[in-house]
Specification:
Number of domains: 2
Strand content: 15-25%
CATH architecture of the largest domain: Alpha-Beta Barrel
Bound molecules: zinc ion
CATH class of the largest domain: Alpha Beta
Distance between the termini: 34 Å
Oligomer: single chain
Number of helices: 18
Strand order of the largest sheet: 8-15-16-17-18-19-20-21
């Protein structure tokens, strides 16, 4: 048999509905792939003409296909690590008994002596209505140290093995600023409160290295592929994270196209060290290829509205003193932005509160005078409560926004109490960004909120909260088309990749997903529950349900 003609497709998806996300947002019936790229888009008849005996043909039977999804701001290592450790939240853990069983399961998987970690328990939600103790886990894990962190992060429970390794006993004096909880006989119960006490044990947990990061990234990639994510911007990497990425890529195990960002400030180092790192960093924005690229510099200058740490222009509800926190002094921010700009890196800056956004935009204006940033796609991460002036400045300097609709769903209930109903309307103001002509891409900031994209995508349409089902800022709703663009093409735009991905058009990378419903026409609430059946990365199946 002769070799297939060069114009014939490797793969053809036919008899479906292809949401192309092209200029006209048009729909097609079929799509073909050749050498990892989209080959043709059209009717089934047209596409079938380009197939041969070697072409793999998939009959979609009416199913919907859309471009692979792009999460424009998350933390990959953090997500992988959160998946690997025990999820102690309620649900799924309904009781201390459940936690014990989960630890027992882990003991079977890990090596003798290896640490078993978990996070998320809240005694109020557990059937026993009490804190877990060392003894609960000694039974199932006598030889492996166990540390389970409470949902708040300020409290841990350690088993006897972990206490022993940490040198915590009846005789250990109470550390300054922390509490070793002890029973009536003076024996530690396993509960350690606040850093100084928790660190007695936590500092004994082996430091993570490149190998660990590789495992976490791989875990995250598999999870992302299973929900239709084919591209991400990974915010805040160290050079060890980047080394892990490169090794995975070499092994052929990187299945999510990644744009890495360098963490500007690492640990609590002096500003000179951060600037030095930027000045000496070997990669400039855009370095890399279609699978792994360096995007730029990630800086963070405030917190979030949920924890009342986002820096606001007006004080938080019920506390005239509280405006949030600025985590980096203004002059240091300028040093970082200038260093990145001069070096040839674009900057993406976490600024949740309005006052933080004003500070960042001001820093952009100043650096713009030193070296123009227009066209270099600097961007704001989170960015609530933009003013008319902010819009204008963003347009003038070509500043874009990475926003996370999922925050409204998962965290929105806490926002109401913290900033009140009026200001809540301007959290994640997607309608305004788009109407003002400012590029806005979507994501989840995982593990801050869960990474499954259809919940986040739906939230940008519905703007409802998880617990109280409160509608938040309905004026800021976007249409389904816009929501899909924010999760595909706009993300690609943020990383200068709009010509190679984000839509299903000939010549672009064949990153596509087959989904179980038509997200354009199904009832609005059903969009949230969309399941991914197959994920293609460059025409190769990386997930199949
Ligand atoms: Zn983040």
């Amino acid at each position: 048999m002769s070799a297939p003609k060069p114009c014939l497709a490797d793969l053809a998806l036919i008899n479906g509905k292809i949401i192309t996300v092209d200029e006209k947002f048009s729909f097609a019936e079929a799509v073909s792939v050749k050498n990892g790229r989209i080959h043709a888009v059209g009717t089934t008849e047209e596409v079938m003409k380009l197939t041969g005996p070697e072409t793999k043909i998939v009959d979609l039977k009416g199913r919907t296909v859309m471009p692979g999804l792009y999460d424009s701001h998350l933390h990959v290592v953090g997500t992988g690590s959160a998946i690997q450790i025990i999820n102690c939240r309620t649900p799924p853990m309904m009781s201390i008994e459940d936690l014990k069983n989960a630890v027992a399961e882990k003991v079977k998987e890990v090596k003798p002596g290896e640490w078993i970690l978990g996070r998320g328990w809240d005694q109020v939600k557990l059937a026993e209505q009490r804190n877990p103790s060392r003894y609960d886990f000694d039974e199932v894990s006598p030889d492996n140290p166990v540390v389970l962190t409470r949902t708040c992060g300020h409290l841990i429970v350690a088993n006897s093995k972990a206490l022993e390794i940490g040198g915590v006993s009846k005789d250990t004096p109470q550390p300054l600023g922390g509490v070793i909880v002890k029973d009536e006989n003076g024996e530690p119960t396993g509960m350690l409160e606040e850093g100084p006490a928790m660190n007695l044990v936590r500092n004994q947990i082996p430091q993570e290295g490149v190998e660990d990061y590789m495992g976490q990234i791989k875990t995250a990639c598999e999870a992302f592929n299973a929900v239709g994510i084919t591209s991400v911007i990974d915010a805040g990497n160290t050079s060890d994270h980047m080394a892990a990425y490169q090794r995975l890529k070499e092994n052929g195990e990187l299945t999510v196209r990644t744009n890495m960002m360098l963490a500007a400030i690492q640990k609590s180092e002096p500003i000179e060290d951060s600037v030095k790192r930027i000045n000496e960093f070997p990669m400039l924005s855009g370095y890399g290829d279609e699978l792994l690229k360096f995007q730029g510099l990630k800086i963070l200058i405030d917190g979030g509205v949920g924890g009342r740490t986002a820096l606001l222009r007006e004080h938080y509800e019920n506390d005239p003193e509280d405006y949030g926190v600025l985590t980096v002094p203004v002059e240091n921010l300028q040093k970082l932005v200038d260093a990145g700009n001069m070096r040839g890196m674009l900057c993406g800056i976490h600024c949740a509160g309005g006052a933080a956004m004003d500070i960042v935009i001001d820093a952009f204006k100043k650096t713009n005078k030193v070296k123009p940033i227009k066209g270099r796609r600097f961007y704001l991460i989170h960015a609530y409560q933009p003013t008319e002036q902010n819009f204008k400045d963003c347009r003038d300097m070509g500043i874009m926004v990475a926003s996370q609709p999922s925050f409204l769903y998962y965290l929105g209930d806490s926002y109401y109490g913290n900033v009140g109903p009026e200001r809540s309307k301007w959290l994640k103001p997607h309608r305004a960004w788009l109407d003002e002509g400012i590029m806005c891409a979507a994501g989840t900031d995982s593990p801050v909120t869960p990474y499954p994209p259809f919940v986040s995508l739906w939230t940008s349409i519905a703007r409802r909260t998880e617990i109280n089902d409160t509608q938040m800022g309905t004026e800021q709703k976007v249409t389904r088309k816009e929501a899909i663009k924010m999760y595909t093409l706009n993300g690609a735009y943020l990383t200068f990749e709009e010509d190679i991905k984000g839509s299903i058009e000939p010549g672009k990378l064949a990153d596509m997903i087959i989904i179980d419903r038509d997200v354009m026409t199904c009832p609005e609430d059903d969009v949230k529950d969309t399941k991914v059946l197959t994920t293609y990365l460059g025409g190769k199946v990386v997930f199949e349900a």
